[in-house]
# Entry
Amino acid sequence: MQFYLQTLLGITLTLIALYHVIRIFKNRKENLDFPIHIFMAGAPFVIALTLTTVHIVDIALQWTTIVPTVQGTCVIDYGKYIVPIKVEENDLTLLSSMYLDDEGAGTYYGCEASYYPVTKFIIDYKYDSYLDTHEY
# Structure
């Protein structure tokens, strides 16, 4: 759900930035600051468009059932907002937006995770058993 909200926010910011770029072009006058105005309005537009495109590609790939799944031993680090989950066998680090306290971090055996292919953000994951705790 959070991934879809980020995409919706990105689309909104892209449209707002596009509106400002068009408005600057329509209202331009003989002004020496015109290139600076275009840069200041165009840079957020390009950034928002790039991020939105990446999210839309991930969602389109999920809808067409092209979702990679990885299995192996997962090492979950401590994190409050974005939690990195490293799958050791594949040397792959995925990101998850779950909340973990100190006791949730550690190494899990038999981890299986499906993720968005472009952003490496986890869609769903499962694990079998807990191996050991992390060091304090």
